[in-house]
Design a protein that fits this description.
Layout: E1 2-4, H1 9-15, H2 17-26, E2 33-36, E3 52-55, H3 67-78, E4 81-86, H4 94-99, E5 102-107, H5 122-127, H6 136-141, H7 151-158, E6 165-168, H8 186-197, E7 202-204, H9 211-214, E8 225-227, H10 234-242, E9 246-250, H11 253-260, E10 265-268, E11 287-290, H12 303-307, H13 312-315, H14 319-329
Parallel strand pairs: 1-2, 1-4, 2-3, 4-5, 6-7, 6-9, 7-8, 9-10, 10-11
Helix pairs in contact: 1-11, 8-14
């Protein structure tokens, strides 16, 4: 089986629901390959369920200019796939999908659906595009899942406490110019962290290159905070989130990771849709999209958002309300 998914990291987390679904349908010895970008491919570094990951760095390059695309096609010619599942709508993938050798091709742009995907979570809408190769009962139970690094070695490496809450304030728009509509105010993060640190240790996480963003939140609460910003690989992040008592984040890939490893996940959402864009809620996890549900929201990627100069959907979401929600939910308190 070959799965094509080259979107953002959060989108790839949604797509991991296909892995166990395929294994349940066709047996655990099934060979599953992925095509994705080099950065998001790190999600599979410790995942033995995935046989091979083809990196596709320049998605828009035509086949004759892309050695990566030619490598994928050559491999499929030598070892034809039983099934190719495309989880990408982009026009830049059509020629590659056509050229790959597979007995059956399905997925986005190939398999049609009449379901209104604007009213369901993107994890559910993603599953619609491989429903022809998975039994309905298996499909219903399919959910994202991830494999991380070894926890005991990580606990020793970073002197991790037995119980902690993960703080993940950043998102993919941190370094873009202008207003970051998905961000929670820095002063809100500082207030929340001060309140939480009196109750539990905190672990602050963020990607490499985001250190300047976190300077606005410092100083962290004394004696009860562990700063791991820029210090974790993706498999390490998966594992540390998995062993936390809870995760607090904005709409970001970290939130999707939290839900996929069944850690209680609190997502601060303003312009994004709490139904369609939140991490995937399953029968084994707890996802709490925290939103003011203002009349102007959701507005992500609309003219309303472009005209917004006062991000009240995030600014008016108070630290006290967030703290009270967390405290009433997590038994650690």
């Amino acid at each position: 089986m070959l799965v094509l998914r080259c979107g953002a990291l959060g989108d790839l987390v949604y797509a991991t629901a296909i892995i166990d679904a395929l294994r349940m349908q066709y047996g655990e010895d099934i060979i599953i390959d992925f095509i994705t970008t080099p950065g998001t491919a790190k999600l599979f570094e410790r995942d033995t369920r995935v046989n091979r990951v083809f990196h596709l760095k320049h998605k828009k390059l035509p086949i004759w200019l892309s050695p990566q695309k030619r490598d994928i096609i050559h491999h499929s010619r030598e070892y034809p796939y039983d099934v190719l599942i495309s989880l990408e709508f982009g026009k830049q993938f059509k020629s590659l999908i056509k050229a790959i050798h597979a007995n059956h091709k399905t997925g986005m742009g190939i398999l049609e659906t009449t379901v209104d995907t604007t009213s369901i979570n993107r994890g559910e809408s993603t599953k619609l595009y491989y429903r022809d190769i998975i039994d309905s009962q298996i499909l219903v139970s399919a959910k994202p899942s991830l494999i991380g690094a070894d926890y005991p070695s990580l606990k020793e490496k970073f002197s991790l406490p037995d119980h902690a809450i993960i703080i993940a304030p950043s998102n993919s728009h941190n370094q873009k110019k202008g207003l970051n509509y998905r961000a929670w105010p820095f002063e809100h993060w500082r207030t929340l962290m001060e309140k939480l640190s009196t109750q539990t240790p905190l672990i602050i996480v963020g990607a490499r290159g985001e250190e300047a963003f976190f300077d606005h939140i410092k100083p962290y609460p004394n004696n009860n905070s562990i700063d791991l910003v820029g210090r974790l690989s993706i498999p390490e992040l998966i594992t540390i989130v998995q062993h936390a008592e809870g995760l607090i984040c904005t709409d970001s890939a970290t939130g999707h990771i939290g839900a996929a490893v069944d850690t209680p996940t609190f997502v601060l959402m303003g312009p994004n849709n709490p139904v369609t864009d939140s991490p995937y809620k399953s029968d084994t996890n707890k996802v709490y999209p925290l939103s003011l549900a203002l009349p102007c929201a959701p507005c992500y990627k609309t003219e309303t958002m472009e005209q917004c100069r006062d991000n009240i959907c995030m600014k008016n979401l108070s630290p006290n309300n967030v703290f009270d929600t967390i405290k009433s939910t997590i038994k650690l308190f």
